[in-house]
Design brief:
The structure is a single chain. The chain is mostly helical. The protein is built from 14 helices and four strands. It has a single domain, classed as Outer membrane efflux proteins (OEP) (Up-down Bundle), CATH 1.20.1600.10. It has a four-stranded antiparallel β-sheet, with no helix packed on it. Helix 4 runs antiparallel to helix 7, helix 7 (153-219) packs antiparallel against helix 13 and helix 12 (345-410) packs antiparallel against helix 13.
């Protein structure tokens, strides 16, 4: 039986089989080349709390405005404010947020990165169907695309990011404003405690002299043992008051040091200063309505809300711009319709609701600003009336009563016990007058802060606003 002829089909060697590996190698080379363009490498930045504490512990007061500006007796409250603005840890932290916002602004202005890739589907299909593939199959797998921004999208992103930077700056101005007010009030608390301690020293000297007098009178039979014991008890009461006043001064100094960013045990010899008299005079002349109008442009807390509102406006513009389909061009044309997002309708409604919320917040802030100014002004007026009553009526009356009692005692018309009572009344009147004077000063400072008078305008730079004003 004849065997069928054996037929051998010879296939030519196709050099194009090397095309796929070559394309893969080219793609890998391209990816590695692009990856080599990275300019940053990760570096760990460990944090050591012990080292931070050591650095904080070694911090001391020094003049940031030049030695010529500081009195020989010590810094004034405004100079301590300048120091606190530079060195308060929380304010230093707030200042770094501006750098973060600026970086986000730069990111907002960048276009989307192009995409470079290679698809193997043509080569696979040719191999499966024709048992072969060519260089053309490999080349058609290369692709490039670039996503285009929608009309107005990039501008809206930059606008929103720009207002975020402004919001961060105004947040810094707000932190300066709060810190300035708190430092000035803390200085006044220190002054008050120091004055009360000095008064207590004088009263202790007087009470000790009174005790010695009663001891001598008891020895001579001119006073009873009960009267002498009452005088001694009065001295002990005044000495116990000194303990509480010493604690009060310590708390006031530690509170001030905390605001300054200094260790609790550092003592800063601050010299008393007055709030700007010209501003308080303007408040009296202009009236509260004019002060409220001026505060609308000076209060940093309101400025922060206004910046947030402007950012919300640009967020809404961005959401509206994103209603359009997303296009990408390159070796082909791609479109991404908003089928499942309802053409960004929900995002637009969310942005509109956010804007409405901020508008209501601004309205509430204006209402609160007006109430705050009227309340602060009324409290300042009440403190003035209280101090006037103490200085003009109560304190002179207590001093005159003690003087007349001394004359009557020499004439034998007043008992020693009445002298002790009147002496105590005078001590209380002097203490109340000192505390009332300090309270008036604090309320002056709060009125100055409530009007925005501590800052000339919301901060728009990274440099501390108060430092630049004090240096002017």
């Amino acid at each position: 039986m004849a065997q069928p002829p054996i037929r051998v089909r010879l296939r030519p060697v196709v050099p194009h089989r090397l095309a796929a590996p070559r394309a893969a190698r080219c793609l890998l080379f391209l990816v590695s080349s692009l990856g080599g363009c990275a300019t940053y490498e990760y570096e760990a930045a460990p944090i050591d709390t012990s080292q931070i504490l050591s650095s904080l512990q070694g911090r001391r007061w020094h003049d940031d405005l030049g030695a010529a500006s500081v009195s020989s007796d010590g810094p004034r409250p405004r100079q301590l404010v300048a120091f606190a603005v530079m060195h308060n840890p929380w304010l230093v932290s707030a200042r770094t947020q501006i750098g973060v916002a600026k970086s986000l602004l730069l990111e907002a202005g960048l276009l989307a990165n192009p995409q470079i890739g290679w698809g193997a589907m043509d080569a696979i299909a040719s191999q499966v169907i024709d048992s072969d593939h060519s260089t053309l199959d490999v080349a058609t797998g290369l692709g490039f695309s670039m996503t285009l921004p929608r009309p107005g999208e990039l501008d809206a992103k930059e606008g929103a990011a720009r207002w975020r930077v402004e919001e961060a700056r105004r947040q810094l101005s707000l932190a300066e404003w709060i810190l300035a007010r708190d430092v000035l009030v803390a200085c006044e608390n220190v002054f008050e405690a120091e004055r009360l301690l000095l008064q207590n020293d004088d009263v202790i000297e007087l009470a000790d002299a009174t005790r010695e007098y009663f001891e001598r009178a008891r020895s001579a039979g001119a006073a009873t043992a009960i009267q002498a014991n009452l005088a001694a008890g009065d001295l002990l009461t005044i000495r116990s008051l000194r303990l509480s006043l010493t604690s009060r001064l310590r708390e006031a100094r530690q509170s001030l040091n905390s605001l300054l960013g200094l260790p609790p045990n550092v003592e800063v010899g601050v010299v008393a200063g007055d709030p700007p008299a010209e501003f308080l005079a303007e408040t009296e002349d202009e009236g509260l309505d004019a002060v409220v109008d001026r505060a609308l442009s000076l209060r940093p807390d309101l400025a922060v809300l206004l910046a947030s509102y402007q950012a919300a406006e640009d967020d809404l513009r961005l959401a509206i711009a994103r209603q359009a389909p997303q296009f990408a061009v390159g070796t082909g044309l791609w479109i991404t319709p908003g089928l499942f997002t309802e053409n960004n309708r929900r995002a637009v409604e969310t942005a509109m609701a956010r804007r409405a919320e901020l508008r209501a917040d601004v309205e509430a802030a204006v209402h609160e600003l007006r109430r705050d100014l009227f309340d602060t002004y009324a409290e300042r007026e009440e403190a003035k009336q209280q101090l006037g009553f103490l200085e003009q009526e109560l304190l002179p009356n207590a001093e005159e009563s003690l003087r007349l009692a001394g004359e009557a005692f020499d004439a034998g018309e007043v008992t020693p016990l009445e002298i002790l009572i009147l002496q105590r009344v005078l001590v209380d009147a002097r203490t109340a007058t000192t505390e009332s004077r300090a309270e008036l000063q604090r309320r002056n400072l709060r009125l100055l802060a409530a009007s925005g008078g501590l800052l000339s305008a919301p901060s728009t730079e990274t440099e501390p606003t108060l430092v630049k004003e004090l240096d002017r």
